[in-house]
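Before relying on records like the one below, remember that each one covers exactly one chain. Contacts with other chains, cofactors or solvent are not represented anywhere in the record.
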Amino acid sequence: MIVALSLLLACPNPSSATRAPVELVRAQERSTREQFVALFAARDEQGCAALWRAHPREVLYTIDEDLEGALATWEKSPETPDAKAIAEHHARALWGARIASEVSGHPIFLDYASAFAGQSKEQKQHFRAGQRAHGESRKALKAKDFASAESKARECIEHAAPLGDWWGHAMGLSALGAALVAKGEHASAVAPLGEAALIYRDLQLAGDEYNALRALGQALVAAGAKQRAEVVMRRALVLAAELGDAQGKTALEAELARLVK
């Protein structure tokens, strides 16, 4: 679900500094993608393993281009799809996902890719419906229509979760958490934001995990769970440093200082 590259809903008011890490990963992805395609053509598994070790945060973006490419190819002509092109996309994605799962120890990559590659016509429609619902939730949140934002986020989750669409599921959870925080329902926001952060971490989507943790920490403080909030913020602080978000790092340090004084 490549649209997740721009997902910043976990923090209702993300700063430009917070956005930068995610955009940086996207900028890096192209060279990684080109290397991945060449490695698959040569069936160089050791080379692909080395690529994933060197660029763990770009794995999902890279293989998802094939998964989305296969779906887009099918959508051009559902009745008479280009089966050869679709099969090549799926073969490359599954190959890369298998190696990523072996290298990282995270079975989620191959689970995600195999679920996507095996979608029925109805499941493809649910996948696109989940993407649309997420987009509508974002628009509603920006318009301060928090009830609609919550409803559409839940709709996204309902479409994505049964599909094994872990990325879309996390996006829906992040959107739900953002909507609940905006409504002042901080205790209720804790579960979806916490689950989203764990999925993002498993998928090695550091920018999205970081955003979810920032929002989760704020929700936990507001809900009175200060001990857990400290743990969450310290993890977010590590990511702030790794992602180069100096502004976010400063803000987190100030929040932690207030929390532990």
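The two ends are 42 Å apart (CA to CA).
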